[in-house]
C-alpha cells in the first residue's frame, strides 16, 4: 500500500465535498441571490484541494500500478460531481483489502 494512499483518500473526500458545496450551494447563492460570499470562501480551498488531488493521484499511480487509462479515470473524476466518491469506492478501498 502506498504511503500517500491515506492522505489521497482524505484529499479526495474533502475535494469532493468542497466541489459539491461549491456547485450546489455557493454558485446558486451567487447567481440567484447575487451573493458571492460563499464562492469566495469555498473557491480557494477547493482549488487547493483540486490541485493536491491531481498531484497526489499522479504520484501514487505508479505505486498502485494503475494503467494509464485508470489514471485518466481518476483524474477525470475530479471534475465530475460525486466522482471522487466513486473513485474512493472503486479504486482506493479495494487496495486496502489486498
Descriptive report:
The chain is an all-alpha fold and 98 residues long. The protein has one domain (5-97). It contains four helices and no strands. It has helices spanning 5-33, 37-63, 68-77, 83-97. Helix 1 runs antiparallel to helix 2 (37-63) and helix 2 (37-63) runs antiparallel to helix 3 (68-77). The termini are close together. The mean pLDDT is 92.
Number of helices: 4
Secondary-structure-derived class? mainly alpha
Q: How many strand segments?
A: 0
Helix content: over 70%
Cα Rg: 15 Å
Brief rundown of the structure:
This protein has 98 residues and is mainly α. It is 83% helix and 0% strand.
Characteristic key phrases:
single chain, 98 residues, mainly alpha, 0% strand
List the helices and strands and how they pair.
Elements: H1 5-33, H2 37-63, H3 68-77, H4 83-97
Helix pairs in contact: 1-2, 1-4, 2-3, 3-4
